[in-house]
Each structure stands twice: as C-alpha cells, then as structure tokens.
Amino acid sequence: MDLLQIALIFLTFLLSIFLAITGVQVFFILRDLKKTLDRFNNNTTTSLVTEIAEKAKALTEIKRKEYKLKPKRFHKRVLMKR
Question: Diameter of the chain by CA atoms?
Fold first, then answer.
C-alpha cells in the first residue's frame, strides 16, 4: 500500500469518528431543546389559563356590582300577571 492510501484511510476513519461524535452531540442538544420548549409551553399555558381565570373573575365581579346597582323596576304588566 502506498503512503497516500494509508493517509486517506486514516483521514476517512478520523472523519467518521468526528461525524459520529458530532451526531451524538446534536442529538443531545435537540433533546435538551425539546425539554426546554415543553417546559416553556407548560409554563406559558399555565400562566395563560391563570390569567384568563383572573380576568374572568374580575369581569364577573364587575358584572355583579353593575347588576346589584341597577334599581328594580316593576311595570304594571308584570304586577298584573302575578
């Protein structure tokens, strides 16, 4: 075998090892990214649901106050039906 063939085989072997290591590292990075995005999605959903619930509660209280402040009016038709 030529020196050139031995060098090419060695370089091919070395590049294969580097590509395998890089592939494993990319796999770990993507797995961590997925975990982070899932955690972010859960936190966002939880905070969004909590915020919507608080807004709904505040609107309900406002509507209750408005309803309590309205004077009750009785019309003749209503009184006659009873």
Answer: 115
Spatial separation of the C-alpha atoms in residues 27 and 20, rounded to whole Å: 11
d(CA 37, CA 43): 10
The whole-angstrom separation of Cα 74 and Cα 81 is 11
- Burial label, 46 (beta-carbon count in 10 A; 0-12, 13-18, 19+): exposed
Report the distance separating Cα 45 and Cα 43, nearest Å: 5
> What is the identity of the amino acid at 54?
E
Residue 79 has pLDDT above 70, yes or no: no
Residue showing tokens 């796999």: 27
The pLDDT value given to residue 68: 63
